Amino acid sequence: MPSPYRALFAAPGSRAFSAAGFLGRMPLSMMGIGVVTMISQLTGRYGLAGALSATIALSAAAIGPQISRLVDQYGQRRVLRPATLAALSAAAGLLLAAYFRWPDWVLFVCAAGIGSVPSLGAMVRSRWAALYRGTPQLHTAYSFESVVDEVCFIFGPIVSIGLSTAWFPEAGPLLAACFLAVGVFWLTAQRATEPEPHPREHHGGGSALRSRGLQVLVATFVATGSIFGSVDVVTVAFADERGHKSAASVVLALYAAGSCTAGVLFGLLRPSGAPARRWLLGICAMGVSMIPLLLVGNLPFLAVALFVAGLSVAPTMITTMALVEEHVPRAHLTEGMTWVSTGLAVGVALGSSVAGWVIDAAGARSGYGVPAVSGAVAVAVGFLGYRRLSRPAPGRGGSVGQQDEREERHVA
Predict the structure, then answer these.
(1) What is the pLDDT confidence band of residue 239, given thresholds at 50, 70 and 90?
(2) Contact 381/177 with Cβ under 8 angstroms?
């Protein structure tokens, strides 16, 4: 591991909370695609599979920021454990409903319950921010966490799709639930590195989403999430049409591998210039990289195209988290990071659902029009909101005490 990354773990407890966060984030890449694989194998209905995956994402989008807001007020341990138990109970219900062929409405109710899963990425990043706020190490920490995200997306689909196709259909989502349980309870057992909560009387009455800069990030990442959700569903169907359904996991892993490679290299740099400009360039690169998918005719070409497309993902995500740090008050940081994930989740829901219906109606290859259109929308929203991101957020100057006071007024 390059020395800037090795230096991150000099802080006591950093290795343990990062490892716990890795395990707890594996379901992020395993559950949705696992449900798609499970339902398509049991019923052959990609429309239903995509709709269930979308329901999970939409539910997480609605519940996730509220959970993170409670975490900012009461601390990670008090909030994450009951929220995780609720998500695990819903996941168990979904597996039983799928196995026993219960009515579709039961599947949707259980899928909605899985949305109470907490955003482990935001929880771990908030711990890094508490350790390294205001230092160059925070850029490296965010880069490392983006790499961890991509490692999850490399191995998660392989494990989830592989188990569900080679063992039994419910195996992928079942293992995802196990990873969630271990990761959350291990993370919350580590009290020394848990960020201090901000009780309501010191927290302000508003939401982090009242930040104009955060609104731009969330809106853009709805379109970006649509790219991710549609690419997942269409790739599984594309590989299935060619008689190699299990190869979809390898192809999707290469998409994540491209992002992981770029994230590692980006973390070694000390970028200069305006973060908003780097962010906009990243969004444009992500949008343009979807165009070659419209020309795919075989799996090898698809794998290369997705690897190249992945090169722009991690640097954009790293810069996004830096912008959240700039535009969201400290007492709302976990909530602010979760709102970005919420934007992605809403986009994943829209993308996977629309892609599923396009596949059922016109075939898998036509489905790649969904991420191409989503990329164009992301670029358009990014340009429209660029001025908000390039302006300093209120309350970012002056002494620490003045800054904290202004931050609270900015949100409240």
Answers:
(1) confident
(2) no
Cβ atoms of 338 and 64 closer than 8 Å: yes
Cα separation, 31 vs 17, whole angstroms? 22
Cα–Cα distance for residue pair 117/28, rounded to 1 Å: 9
Q: Which two tokens stand for residue 158?
A: 């392989």
Per-chain mean pLDDT for the chain: 82
**Distance set, CA 191 to CA 19, 93, 126, 180 (Å):** 15, 31, 14, 19
DSSP class per residue in 16-59: HHHHHHHHHHHHHHHHHHHHHHHHHHHH--HHHHHHHHHHHHHH
What would the two tokens of residue 199 be?
């009780």
- Contact at 8 Å (CB) between 339 and 63? no
Question: How far, in Å, CA of 386 to CA of 189, rounded?
Answer: 40
Query: What per-residue string of b and e applies to 140-149 under the rule 16 or more CB within 10 Å gives b?
Result: bbbbbbbbbb
Distance CA(318)–CA(146), nearest Å, equals 7
**Measured distance between the N- and C-terminal CA atoms of the chain, rounded to whole angstroms:** 43
Domains and CATH numbers, the chain: 15-196+208-411 (1.20.1250.20)
284 and 334 Cβ atoms separated by less than 8 Å? no
Let me know the angle formed at the C-alpha of 316 by 239 and 266, rounded to the nearest 5 degrees: 100
Distance in angstroms (rounded) separating the CA atoms of residues 313 and 352: 18
What value, to the nearest 5°, has the Cα angle with vertex 226 and ends 221 and 231? 130
Instruction: Give the per-residue pLDDT at 250.
Output: 83
